[in-house]
TrEMBL record:
<keyword id="KW-0733">Signal recognition particle</keyword>
<dbReference type="GO" id="GO:0005525">
    <property type="term" value="F:GTP binding"/>
</dbReference>
<dbReference type="GO" id="GO:0003924">
    <property type="term" value="F:GTPase activity"/>
</dbReference>
<protein>
    <recommendedName>
        <fullName>Signal recognition particle protein</fullName>
        <ecNumber>3.6.5.4</ecNumber>
    </recommendedName>
</protein>
<feature type="binding site">
    <location>
        <begin position="249"/>
        <end position="252"/>
    </location>
    <ligand>
        <name>GTP</name>
    </ligand>
</feature>
<keyword id="KW-0378">Hydrolase</keyword>
<dbReference type="GO" id="GO:0005886">
    <property type="term" value="C:plasma membrane"/>
</dbReference>
<feature type="binding site">
    <location>
        <begin position="191"/>
        <end position="195"/>
    </location>
    <ligand>
        <name>GTP</name>
    </ligand>
</feature>
<keyword id="KW-0342">GTP-binding</keyword>
<keyword id="KW-0963">Cytoplasm</keyword>
<comment type="function">
    <text>Involved in targeting and insertion of nascent membrane proteins into the cytoplasmic membrane. Binds to the hydrophobic signal sequence of the ribosome-nascent chain (RNC) as it emerges from the ribosomes. The SRP-RNC complex is then targeted to the cytoplasmic membrane where it interacts with the SRP receptor FtsY. Interaction with FtsY leads to the transfer of the RNC complex to the Sec translocase for insertion into the membrane, the hydrolysis of GTP by both Ffh and FtsY, and the dissociation of the SRP-FtsY complex into the individual components.</text>
</comment>
<dbReference type="GO" id="GO:0008312">
    <property type="term" value="F:7S RNA binding"/>
</dbReference>
<comment type="subunit">
    <text>Part of the signal recognition particle protein translocation system, which is composed of SRP and FtsY. SRP is a ribonucleoprotein composed of Ffh and a 4.5S RNA molecule.</text>
</comment>
<dbReference type="GO" id="GO:0048500">
    <property type="term" value="C:signal recognition particle"/>
</dbReference>
<comment type="similarity">
    <text>Belongs to the GTP-binding SRP family. SRP54 subfamily.</text>
</comment>
<keyword id="KW-0547">Nucleotide-binding</keyword>
<dbReference type="GO" id="GO:0006614">
    <property type="term" value="P:SRP-dependent cotranslational protein targeting to membrane"/>
</dbReference>
Amino acid sequence: MFESLSERLGSVFDRLTKAGALSEADVDAALREVRTALLEADVSLAVARDFIKAVKAKATGQAVTKSVTPGQQVVKIVHDELVHVLAGEGEPDALKIDNPPSAILMVGLQGSGKTTTTAKLAKRLKDKNGKKVLLASLDTNRPAAMEQLAILAGQVGVDSLPIVKGETAVQIAKRAKTQATLGGYDVVFLDTAGRLHIDEVLMDEVQAVRDIAQPRETLLVVDGLTGQDAVNVATEFDGKVGISGVVLTRMDGDGRGGAALSMRAVTGKPIRFVGLGEKMDALETFEAERVAGRILG
Ligand code: GDP
């Protein structure tokens, strides 16, 4: 997930920890390399700059250069700062399901992995949390997408709302909520239609559905391979419909990881889950500590 960033940082820190005594200039030089590595990983410029500033302030404050193992001190400060930038203030738990039926609105661009992620989350809630889950596709433009969700629902062993031709997204959302209540479901996922690009029609539709569904969570699914674009998409969706969290997909690919590092700092929204493949169990809860550990190898 973060192979090249991890490698780059690894070699910087190897040198630092082997160096024994460090001058302030040594620390500065190392941090410049860290900054370059972050930028190469497609971390946004502002985030990389703030990151280095925060590490430097702490390194200076703790008189790192005078400590017994100055290199390790710097690595520890970088680790803690990584956790901070990944998690922000207070990392939320996994999905909150209360007051059943809880609606979870899934939003995102077409091809981001929204439908796949919806089914993965349904499987997780059913298998790990014992929840009764209903899936509904609102993608009225693409009958194939509706069928795909029904197929995936069958694969993971949860119910899907029967498809009724000619309904609008809002009508489907209403029917899904009614069905969720009558059927005694804990959770109903509303898989909204994606578009190739953000456009007004899409946003209006998502807003209308949101107002009807009153979702407990609105999760944005974005392709982690798209780096800073993923962060821009999140900013736009959050501004227009309001999101409660993000799922980064394709983190199994050779992406540079920048989206993960910039997301919280730029959008203020937490990454909740990462997609790590096409299989239905290829989904991980996003844990800042673990990710920071992975980055630092
Ligand atoms: P949607 O248009 O946003 O609903 O996207 P889909 O859920 O149909 O996913 C598009 C493609 O991406 C499918 O082939 C999925 O199997 C694949 N996909 C989704 N999530 C992941 C992931 O985390 N990793 C990988 N490698 N592929 C994924």
